[in-house]
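Lecture notes, unit on protein representations.

Consider one protein chain, 332 amino acids long.
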Amino acid sequence: MEVVAYSPEWLPQLGALARAHARLVAPASLPDDQTVERGLDHHHAWPFYSPGMDTSQVRLVIEGDQLLAAGQLGLCDHGWGYGAALGDGPDWLHETHAVLFWLFAWPGWPEAIQAAALLAATTVRQARAEGLPGLEAFRGGAGFLPLGTQCSSRWPHLFAPLRAVGFRQPRPLVVYGGALDPSSLPVLDPDVMEHVECHARRGRVEAWLDGVPRGVCDAEMLPPVPTEDRFPTRSTFRPNLDINTPAARRTRRRGGNVLQWAHIRRLWVDNETRSLGIGRVLLQTQLQRLADHGATHWALHLPEDPGNGPAHGLYSQFGQVLDRQFVLRVSF
């Protein structure tokens, strides 16, 4: 086995490796080779990670003409986000730091798992040699996968190579979501609606109570994901045939459909007014708004903390658990 830099002649095998992992989490949204190649320089789901990919290194572990494992090492210019709230973790996490965006190896192939361990060890050794204080893995995930899938619980073959070199996860991230069908949204309490007023602007919905802002829900539409399949699994739901984006029309002309994901970035309610149903109103209003703008599916990430029990209860009323994912880190 040897570790080499990526070059275009390896794209067919790298694309196949990417699809092998996508098939486990989003089988109706498999990236083609061109999508994989673009995703090495530009993050499809989270564009704010793209600058850290400009100078990234994509490395392969090969044996002869066979690709066994691959990964991408780049930079992240902030540490706040999924699995790394302010005050959670070392200081370097909240500054510009190195991140292993993804590490893939062929599932069920012992030689490939050994190759992943070699690549993880090489990456950690390089980071130590350069005097870095630590390293993250899977923040943002692969730029060519839907929602920038982080280290999924459906990739158990990747955990041993990462943990062997010291990577640990502070907590799981529960991914909630589902198909967006306005007619199936929960019915809101009319007594709450009588007192709560919602205002929407751009991707933001604010809840006002007695003339005072008491909560906010931020969301964004992600780039459409063409799909030729329609199987309603826990991670890919029935596409909506009525969305009217140019990408959707092009895909329908080819006989396919489009998954138009929306991501809930933040839902916050003032401490003084929690348990009054404002969060439910905010999420309902935001999902209705996203559906009106053509979204077919929604998702959000929530740390699996004991203190997040009410939030888990709220989101389970509107969707289901699609996955559990991890952002890992190691400090030196």
